[in-house]
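retry 2 of 3: previous attempt timed out while embedding glycinamide ribonucleotide. Reduced batch size to 1 and resubmitted. Inputs unchanged:
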Amino acid sequence: MSRTLGVLISGRGSNLQAILDAIERGDLDARIGVVISNVSGAAGLARAEKASVPTAVLSHQDYGSREAFDEALLERLDESEVDLVCLAGFMRILSPVLVRAFPNRILNIHPSLLPAFTGLHAQRQAVAHGVKLSGCTVHLVDEELDHGPIVLQSAVHVDDQDDEDTLAARILEQEHALYPKAIQLVLDGRVVIEGRRARIS
Ligand code: GAR
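retry 2 succeeded.
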C-alpha cells in the first residue's frame, strides 16, 4: 500500500511539482495527503490544487510561538495520516515539537552540499565563497538547522561566470531528480541510521 506524504512549502513549489510528477510517472510509490503552506498565495498551492491534492494554509504569524505553530502543523499532518513529512522550500525552522513527533520521518532538501552553507541563500554563499563545487542535499531533519543524517547528495560545478541565479537554476535541476529518489529510499526502509550517518542498504 502506498504511503502518505505531507509536503510543507513556502513558495514556488517546484520540488513539490517534481514529487507530483514522479508519482504520476510511477517512479515514486506514494501519495500526497496534504500540502501545507505557511504563506497564503504561495505558487505551490496552485500546483497541488491542479493535482487534486488537499491543501492548507497555516500562517506562522497567527501563532504565539514556534511550538504553537508546530502543534497546529502536527494536527493537520495527523488529520491526513501522514507517514513522511517532506520539507520542500519550507522556510521555517522546526521546533522539537514536530521533530520528535516524526523521528527520522522528516526530510528536507537544501541547495548546498551540507555541511557547507546552511541557512538562507545557500547558493549566494557558495558563489561568494568561491567554491568550485556545490550542489544539493536531501537529509533527515533533526533538532539542529540543516544538520541531520544525509540521505543523498548531488554535486554541481560552479563556473567563474556563475551568479547566485545561474547556480541556483542548475542546482534546482538536480534537486528535482534527487528528492523523489531519496523519498523512495526512505519509504522502502532502505535508509539505516547509524549515529549521524544514514547508510543506504
Ligand atoms: C529550493 O532550492 C530548496 O532547496 C530551497 O528553497 C528552494 C525552494 O524551491 N530550500 C532551502 O533553502 C531550505 N533551507 P521550490 O519552492 O521551487 O521547491
